[in-house]
Write a structure and sequence with these properties.
5 helices; mainly alpha; elongated
C-alpha cells in the first residue's frame, strides 16, 4: 500500500508538471500560471505505524525517506495553494482595478501599477511552485524505484506495482 500511495502522489505531481511545463521558461509565467484549487489528497498519505517493520530491516532509512517525501508532497501542494490565494486576493484586484486584463505592458509599467514588492511576491511564489513541484516529482520518482527494489528484496516472491512511465 505504501508503494501504491507513493505512485498516487507521483501521478498527482505528474499532472501538475504537465500544466506547468508549457510556461516553464516564459519570463511572464507569474501572470500566466492560473490560480489553482488543488486537491489536498488527504487520502494518499503513508501509514507510518503500519510501516514501522521497516525499522527492523537493513534498509531502515527508507522509512525516513518516505516521511521526507510525504512532507515534500504536502509542501508542494501548500505552495500552490498559497500562490493561488496571493494571486486571487492581492494581484487580481489590482489588475482589475487598473483594467489590465490581458494587456501586454512593459515590466516597469506593471511594477509601478502592482507595486514592486507585490510583484516580486508573485514572481517568487511562482518560482517556488515550479521548484517544489519539479523537485518533488523527481525525488518521488527516484524513491519509488528505490522503494520498489526494497519491497522486492523483502518479499521476492510477491509482485509489486511499479511506475508505468515518467513525465
Amino acid at each position: 500500500m505504501a508503494l501504491f500511495t507513493l505512485l498516487r502522489q507521483i501521478n498527482a505531481l505528474a499532472n501538475l508538471v504537465k500544466d506547468l511545463e508549457p510556461l516553464k521558461n516564459d519570463p511572464s509565467r507569474c501572470f500566466k500560471v492560473q490560480p489553482w484549487h488543488v486537491n489536498e489528497y488527504e487520502d494518499i498519505k503513508f501509514n507510518f505505524e503500519n510501516l514501522s517493520f521497516i525499522l527492523e530491516t537493513d534498509d531502515l532509512n527508507i522509512l525516513y525517506e518516505l516521511l521526507i517525501e510525504q512532507e515534500r508532497f504536502e509542501q508542494a501542494l501548500k505552495t500552490i495553494q498559497l500562490r493561488s490565494e496571493y494571486q486571487v486576493k492581492v494581484i487580481q484586484p489590482i489588475l482589475e482595478e487598473n483594467d489590465i486584463g490581458n494587456k501586454r505592458l512593459p515590466f516597469d509599467k506593471l511594477e509601478s501599477i502592482i507595486g514592486k514588492y507585490k510583484l516580486e511576491g508573485l514572481m517568487l511564489a511562482t518560482d517556488k511552485v515550479y521548484e517544489h513541484v519539479y523537485q518533488t516529482f523527481e525525488s518521488s520518482s527516484k524513491l519509488a524505484d528505490d522503494f520498489h527494489s526494497f519491497a522486492k528484496r523483502q518479499y521476492p516472491k510477491v509482485g509489486f506495482i511499479s511506475q508505468a512511465t515518467k513525465t
